[in-house]
Amino acid sequence: MNALASSSARRQPLWVVRCCAWLLAGLLALPVQAEPLAQREHHRWTMADDDGPNQVGALAQTGDGYLWLGSDSNLLRFDGFGFMNYQPGDGQPLGTVTSLLAVDDGLWVGLRAGGARLIQGRTTRSYPPGQGLPGGALYGLARDRDGTLWAAAHEGLARFDGERWTPVGADQGFSARSARAVFVDRDGTAWAAGSHRLYQRPAGAQRFTEVDGAIDWASQIAQAADGAIWIAERYVNRLHRVIPGTRPRMQTQTVDAPINGLLFDKAGGLWTSTPGNGLRRYRHVRMPLDLSRAERVTRTEGLSADYLWPLLEDRDGTVWAGSNAGLDRFRLRELSPAPLPAGTLNAALAMATDGALWAASGNRGLMRLQDGELQHWPIAEPVTALLADRAAGIWAGGPHGIWHATAAGVALLARLPEQAMADASVRALTLADDGSLWVSINGLGLFVLRGGQWQAAAGVGEKPSQVMPVSASRDEQGRLWFGYRDNLLVSRQGDQWRQWGEADGLQIGHVTAQLHRHGVSWVGGQHGLARFDGQRFQMLPLPANGQFDNIYALLPGRDGDLWVHGKGGILQLPAPEVARALAEPGYRLRYRSVSLDGSLANDPYRLLPLPTGVMGSDGRLWFSTSAGVSLLDPARQPAPAPLPTVVIESLLVDGVPQPLPTTLQLPAGSRRLVIDYAALNLRAPQSLSFRYRLQGYDRDWIEAGRQRRATYTGLPAGDYRFEVQVFDQSDGEPAAPTMLAFSVAPAFYLRPQFYLPLTTALLFVLWWLHRRAVRRDRQRLHLQLQAQQGERERIARELHDTLLQSLQGLMLRFQAAANTLAADHPARTGLEHALDRADQVMHEGRERVQHLRQPDTSGLGLAAELSQFVQGLDDPGIGIALHDTGNKRTLHAAVQDAAYRIATEAIGNTLRHASARQITLTLDYGVRDLRVCIEDDGQGIAADYATAEGRPKRWGVRGMHERAAQVGGTLTVQALASGGTRVELRIKAALSYADQARQPWRRWLTRPRPPTTESDDA
Questions:
Q1: How far, in Å, CA of 277 to CA of 420, rounded?
Q2: DSSP state of 588
Q3: What span, in angstroms and rounded, lies between the C-alpha atoms of 650 and 685?
Q4: pLDDT tier for residue 801 given thresholds of 50, 70 and 90
Q5: Whole-angstrom distance, CA of residue 612 vs CA of residue 622
Q6: Cis peptide preceding 644, ω within 30 of 0
Q7: What does 142-186 look like in DSSP terms, one character per residue?
């Protein structure tokens, strides 16, 4: 008994375990309810539609947010807007990509030709087949908790430990010759599918074990929310479900089509892709699947193709499918489609006081939707304007008249005025307190409908475009407002009309939308929004990115938020942001974009049915777009996703790609700079807005909107820093800017290395030209001096042969005559004195002749000669002072003779004519020139006599000027203001000093003035 009890006790845990296992399996097999596929918005990219991809066979999302696509020809990267071909660094094409796996530090790429590549940033590592990696197409990749990489290839299974590949064979429990798929589940168990069998290797185990049950070519292995492993077969219509455990149990179901891809999304739904039958989605996930309840999407419903391969759910919950014709995206909608008939596009909307939604368009008549029930009245179409009244009814207007409708039915109240054209439409409606209906008729004007009778309102606009209002409303005080084109707003209270325009702060162009709530009025239009405070309008500073242009509806939101509907889509402006933007000039308002796809038409002049947006009593918002009528519940909005990081993708300089290090040196003369940047939000890339600036060039930020490229041309040389910032248009803080520093090198002729040799060469040329000019001038002077010396010698011969000889003969005659007289004869004494004077004249004449033949034969310098001259003067009434400054230098003989003659002539003139008491003679041996100055304190010289012509019939002053000119000097004769006369001679150093050739540095200080060619005929 005890033994039996003991045996039962030992067996009891096994039964408990089995019961618990069956119970758990049953619970896990219960259906999982997911949201319907209609709640997802579908978009596709194909080569025919969007220059998209072709033959997409693999998908992966890397940590930076990019979506990678393996195609039959290359690897593509997708940022939500465009596809970029990946170019390996080694220049070797990848060929057909069969599998992708994103890991923390990069992307693994499996190739059909065999082998794998690891892409890490801008580097690529290649692992060709061999050395442990099996050959053939690489079908799948997976990584376990330990970082070990598993690869399923046509010729076997392998593992990679970070350093080398190791084949996995029968010695490790995997006996198949080919591996079709590999997968690592949430518990760390590795699953590998061979040609006909499935193998598992639990975490920590060293070997694979075979799972009971046969499989054919496995195309995909995936794990459901309950932990079960599902295996799809590519060529056989079978689907397998395996319950993990020590002894896994396999369930098999026959399906209606082979399956290429399996995906369990975050909501619990199962997606399957088929080769030729499109996409399937199952909201109830259990085995067996109810195939009749599958949601199906085929090419008929807009799928890129019916032949599908990979499936992927990204980090935001968006599902991606690759096909043989492109890429498909299924993202959760923020806007729910209204249950209205298909084709209800660009409808006018009205919300009745009983909560019913009214809609009317150009082709669907008039409809009423309440509590899911739809009523429809086929009235004359089109209906171009709706207005809810104070009861539960609405007013409708169109080219065929005005109707009033309630839940009970519709009644035509009046046709349009007789003067209205047949195709005239109703532009806007509003209701006054007295029950009169104010109607704006396109092309005709503003009319009032009272008791079925029309009355034209007086025109207010001065421009042809302001014939009729384009918007109308009534505020809470009963005042009527009419918005016109070209920035005109008119209000009516009682019988009083008032116009509002630019002088009142209004600057929005066409006034197309109005909102009056809680005493605050807003108007929107062609160029943004303005708030009315009762006295003036204040423009709301908005980003200049085009999203706030052409506004057609303004709606209130929770907590004072403002909703805007226009060509930019549906935009939410949080109340705190609006208040701050109005109070702080220059503040950049942050806002949120909702479902920008399928907004209003972009043409502001297009006649759209109005209004395009209404709010229900429950706070839900209804919007009419070119894609249909949609519902938005602000209370169920998803939390904004974290802002992505801006990535600078490429830099092109004159069409040539450049590397992107921290700093970049661009070549000189770069003409066109193109910077491509991106921020990854694959779910809603249109919700991101950018601004950028180039420090060193731009003065302020440039609002780029959704544009993802910056272009600069003709940048001058210098250092620059490009900054780009992303906004998600929500009430969160903007992301920190991403920066790229670079510099543009100056042209070679602007570099210092170019200046030095160029300056040296230029100075050398100038020095050579100056030296040549000085040499030429010296040669010319030398020739002139030789000519002068020859002329002087001729004059000396003439004087010697004629005048001196004749004078000598006269003296001999006078001497003979004197000898005949007695010694005491009075006449003899006079003759003796005359003869003595004649001897002196003869002596001076010989000296003059000697000087003419060889000037300065005395060997004395100019200063010594002038000193001897001054000492030889015998005039006690005049004081003469001689000063010499500078370093005494040897002068050219002609220069010394000219300076001496000019100085002595000037002193002689002073002694004879000036009645002076003091004469100062200054001789300055300057570096630049030789200066001889004679000043006296006499009665001065007349201005007419100081010129080069001198005094008529006198030769003193004229002779001094001529002597100065002959040696290349300048002579100045002037009367002093204090009395007296100054005579100053200046001769350039190069012409004055005989030793100037030994002092070349002085040539840079002056250039000699060539002397005149006149000869000395003194």
A1: 55
A2: -
A3: 19
A4: low
A5: 8
A6: no
A7: EE-TT--EEEEETTEEEEE-SS-EEEE-GGGT---S---EEEE-T
Asked whether the whole model's pTM tops 0.90, one would answer no
User: Could you report the per-residue pLDDT of 10-54, keeping only the tens digit for each?
Assistant: 333 433 433 344 334 443 344 445 567 777 888 899 988 767 898
> What are the residues whose beta carbons fall under 8 Å from the beta carbon of 902, sequence distance 6 or more?
932, 960, 963, 964, 971, 983, 985
Q: Can you read off the two tokens belonging to residue 787?
A: 């000519």
Tokens of 734: 């903007």
How many angstroms separate the CA atoms of 461 and 459, rounded? 6
Distance, CA of 991 to CA of 838 (rounded, Å) = 38
DSSP notation for 425-459: -EEEEEE-TTSPEEEEETTTEEEEEETTEEEEPPP
| Per-residue confidence (pLDDT) for residue 1011, from 0 to 100 | 40
Q: Which tokens in the block code for residue 949?
A: 């012509």
Beta pairing partners, 885: 924
The neighbour count for residue 824, using CB atoms within 10 Å, is 7
Contact predicate 348/364, CB 8 Å: no
Span 582-611, pLDDT tens digits? 999 888 788 888 765 545 654 444 567 889
Q: Please name which of 104, 596, 52 lies closest in space to residue 325, comparing C-alpha atoms.
A: 52
Q: Which of 497, 598, 551, 543 is nearest to 728 (CA)?
A: 543
Q: Which two tokens stand for residue 898?
A: 């000219």
3-state secondary structure 359-407: EECCCCCEEEEECCEEEEECCCCCCCEEEECCCCCEEEEECCEEEEEEC
Cα gap 95→298, rounded to integer Å = 29
Across the beta sheet with 445-450, what order do the strands follow?
426-431, 437-441, 445-450, 453-456
Cα–Cα nearest to 508, from 548, 464, 451, 564: 548
End-to-end CA distance of the chain: 168
In whole angstroms, what is the distance from residue 387 CA to residue 370 CA? 17
Residues facing residue 693 across a β-bridge: 723
Spatial distance between the Cα atoms of 905 and 892, rounded to a whole number of angstroms:
20
The single residue listed with the structure tokens 């794998």 is: 116
| DSSP SS3 for 747 | coil
> CB of 601 within 8 A of CB of 626?
yes
Q: Residue-wise over 175-185: b if at least 16 C-beta within 10 A, else e?
A: ebebbbbbbbb
DSSP-derived secondary structure for 8-49: HHHHHHHHHHHHHHHHHHHHHTS------GGGEEEEEEEHHH
Return d(Cα 725, Cα 701) in angstroms, integer: 10
Which stretch of DSSP H or E encloses residue 309?
strand 308-313
Question: If you average pLDDT over each of 138-147, 697-706, 730-739, 898-907, which comes out highest?
Answer: 138-147
Strands (E), 595-670: 613-615, 621-625, 628-632, 646-653, 656-657, 663-666
* Comparison of pLDDT for 373 and 796, the residue scoring more: 373
For 638, how many CA atoms within 13 A lie in the half-sphere containing its CB?
15
Query: Is the model's pLDDT at 794 over the cut of 50?
Result: yes
Q: What whole-number distance in Å separates Cα of residue 275 and Cα of residue 273? A: 7
Distance CA 296, CA 312 (A): 17
Band of residue 754 on the pLDDT scale cut at 50, 70, 90 = low
Q: What is the mean pLDDT of residues 756-785?
A: 84
